Amino acid sequence: MTPHPTLAGRARWLTSPSTISVFAGIALATAYAWASLSIPAGTRLAFGVILVVVCVVFNTVGDLVEQRRLSVLAQLGRGALPATPEHLLAAALSVARAPDVTLVLVASFLSGGAFLVGVLWSASTAAPGQAGLRLAFIGLVSAPVTSLIASLSMFGRVRTVLGELVAAGLPAPQLYAALPARSWGGRLVVFALVAAVSPVVLIADLSLERFSGLVARVGAGDHAAARAAIEGSFVQDFGALAVLVAILLVLVAVCAWLAGDAIGGPLRALAEKTRRLAAGRYDGDFVPAEFESLDAAAALHAMEHHLLEALRALDQTSASITTATAALVATTARSSERLDASAALAQTNATTTELARSASQIAANAQVVSSLAQQTFAAARSGKGSADAFAGAMGQVREGNQAIADSVVRLNKRVQQVGRIVGFIDSIADRSDLLALNAELEGHKAGEVGRGFSLVAAEMRRLAESVLQSTREISGLIEDIRDATNAAVMATEAGVKATDAGASLSGRVGVRLTSIVDFANQSSEAMQRISEATGQQQLGTEQLVGAMTDILRATRASADASGAMALAHEELVELAQGLTRALADFSETRR
Amino acid sequence: MTLDGAVLCQVGPFRFALAAHDVSSIEVPDARGVYAGRWFGLGDAWPQTARSVRAPGHHVVVDTVEVHGATLPVLAMPAMVASHLVTGFVDVQGALVPVVSLAHAAERRP
């Protein structure tokens, strides 16, 4: 990953004021100790070495602790971590806590370091233990002021880094919600006490030190030295005191300026932000702040967010109003064209009138068709009656044919009986002929005696032959009659079959005619309903003609009113355009 | 020589005569009858109206039979062609009809 362009080196940059403040405080404390303490000449080198070593060690340790606390920020700066909202938020929280961490570290370092220097210096150089304790005391007294300055000097950079984290992608609302709610109240009291008490304590310590040295000289009987100290100490002590007071005043002034900047900086930023909002410039910038001003910045940011949402909605509404107004203008323009539409409507009215006439004609035709359907139904019903009558006649014909067939059969039987009788007569005649022939033969064989007998026999034979001839003719006639009766029987059977077929056909015709009657009845009923529907349609069409006439009148009245509406719409368009321009000003300031 | 009474028999288009005293009776033919048409190549079937001319010990079936009572002159057969079957010819209404001996005719077997 590549280093972040704005966050690179920010961890070190953030803590550098604390380092400077610490070394400045050490320098001042050392100078004070050098001035207030009587460091033996042989121990000064050791004192200096011990002081430097302790300062380097403690500063290194403190710097490691601070950088460890800001490790996420350092990794983001190096590009070791991606600039996700989670990483950015973790870095922001560590940055926000950095002044407090520095305050504790510097206070601990100065007090503990001074004590350690005093102990090591006394132990290594056989310096008076009281001097070591005084050295620890000086460090303890200078620690609050130094740590306060170090902490206050970081607030400005903390706000800068927080702004850069937001610019790097950290959502401002998320940061506002995650930062702890703190108050300046207790801190200002502590700062005031430190700023007020520390100079007093140091001045009192210096005075006490001078006084105790004088008392020690007097107690030792060195009155000359005491006198000389008294006489010469005024200028010396006054100068030292004046330098000390001046340094302390500078420290207090620095503390006050830093505290004022820590408090006033966010307030100035909030004021500037408020002025931008009042001017309609909604840039959505993050306002870095601490303590109470943090809540104000969060509230202001939320307000800005809501105002932006409202402006967006208003912008969309303005666009909709503009679009709708344009549509209204176009509609009004079209309304003016409705005179043409009214012409089309008049044409439609004429078409509807023609439609009404056609509907009337259709209704009349439907009535005629309905009447024809009823006549068809009556004809079909009559046809079915004729078919039934035909079927009955066919039955009678079949019965007549059957009776004829029976009679012919009986006649045939009679003819057969006659034939048998004729056959019997024929056999008798044949025997008679044979007897007559034999009688004639015997008569001839009897000679003259049997001549008369032969003549009678011959005459009988001729009679028998006549009978045979007649019976043969009768047999021929009977055969003709038999053929005729057989033909009649066959004809009557064929007639019976034909009448059966005719009866079956007439039955099927009856069934078909029944279906036709049903269909004709349904057709008649359907045509009746169609006739009624067309009548209703004719009535509806006439009502439609009336409605179209009313619409035509209303359209003409609407066309008259559209002119007045057009003027009103043009005024509405101008108002909408004015609203759009006003919102456009806001939109431009938002970019 | 004359023939006193003759029985004229008709078989198909052919006719022949029998001496009346040779014929004992004329009957309806039965199944045992012999049709004279066989002599003339007309087959064995006789018509329904056929008659059986019976002589003692012989009978023959012919189509029709007619008794002729008049005395008919017989033309004798020439000696060189005389036979026992046809004994002569009689003139019946201008036509010569052979006189057949039924006994010899019955002996002829086709």
What is the rounded distance between the termini of chain A?
Answer: 31 Å
- Summarize model confidence as the mean pLDDT of chain B: 84
Note the run of SSEs of chain A as H and E.
HHHHHHHHHHH
Classify the beta-strand content of chain B into a percent band.
over 45%
Main sheet overview of chain A: none
* Structural classification of chain B: mainly beta
Strand content of chain A: under 5%
Poorly predicted segments of chain B: none
Mean pLDDT of chain A: 80
Number of beta-strand segments of chain B: 8
- Rg value of chain B: 13 Å
Arrangement of strands in the largest sheet of chain B? 2-1-6-7-8
Largest sheet of chain B at a glance?
Answer: 5 strands, antiparallel
Shape of chain B: globular
**Unreliable sequence segments of chain A:** none
Given the helix and strand composition of chain A, which structural class is it? Answer: mainly alpha
How many domains is the backbone of chain B divided into?
A: 1
E-strand count of chain A: 0
The tally of helices of chain B reads 1
Which overall shape of chain A is indicated by the principal axes computed on the Cα atoms? rod-shaped
